[in-house]
Amino acid sequence: DTADIQIKKPQTNSTINMRNIVGTQWKEKMELVGKLLLLLNSYNSSEIRQRAVDLLKKIIVQLSIQDLTHVALHVKTTHEQAAAQSHPQLGPYFPRRKQSTNNTQQQGAIDRISNPTVHTPFRPHFGMYFKKQLLETSKGRDLEFDRAVHAYYSPYHTFIDSL
User: Fold this and answer.
1) Nearest-CA neighbor of 33 among 58, 13, 3?
2) 146, burial (CB in 10 Å: exposed 0-12, middle 13-18, buried 19+)
3) Cα distances (angstroms) measured from residue 86 to each of 7, 123, 138, 152
4) pLDDT of residue 48
5) DSSP string over 97-130
6) Judging by beta carbons within 10 Å of its beta carbon (0-12, 13-18, 19+), is residue 44 exposed, middle or buried?
7) Quick one: where's region Disordered (predicted)?
């Protein structure tokens, strides 16, 4: 296989060749996809989430239709598991409205990093399942908050569109 030949060649480039990753066994591919999906949560910065989405997009471009079906089923299962959680966990990178000094919320201000008492969960979890009750206000009431929520979810939605 060409993937086997490429894997045996020494890499001259410092970046990982995506064909090498995708050319590995199916189990390893699914483990990689699963681990990248688990990076998509509010405990990781937008930069890490964006890089994970970029890698996922590069992987799915090189998969066969049958493999894409398996990835889609894996994503569906991940969504179902996230939907079953009664109390989803929000990390410090989930968009929040900024608190003013008199404990009322200011319109248009976003506080991306919450208080330092937020602890990372023991197990990694998928954080792209959208639950309406996670939002601090309804859509259209605070445009800056709406933009921050859109920026949080849109890279994942573009990945799903690609899938």
Assistant:
1) 58
2) middle
3) 44, 16, 20, 21
4) 94
5) EEE-TTSSEEEEEE--S--TT----SS-------
6) buried
7) 82-114
Which token pair is 139?
Answer: 């859509």
pLDDT-based confidence at residue 101 (cuts at 50, 70, 90): very low
Contact of 56 with 35, CB cutoff 8 Å: no
Nearest 10 degrees: CA dihedral of 50, 53, 58, 63?
Answer: 180
Q: How far apart are CA 91 and CA 89, in angstroms?
A: 7
In this prediction, residue 67 carries a pLDDT of 87
Tokens of 42: 């509010």
Number of domains in the chain: 1
DSSP-derived 3-state class of residue 85 = coil
Residue 149 near residue 134, CB atoms below 8 Å: no
Q: Percent of the chain, pLDDT > 90?
A: 21
Instruction: Name the residue among 40, 37, 53 with its Cα closest to residue 94.
Output: 40
Q: What CA dihedral angle connects 61, 161, 41 and 148, to 10 degrees?
A: 130
Full residue range of the structural domain in which residue 65 is found: 2-162
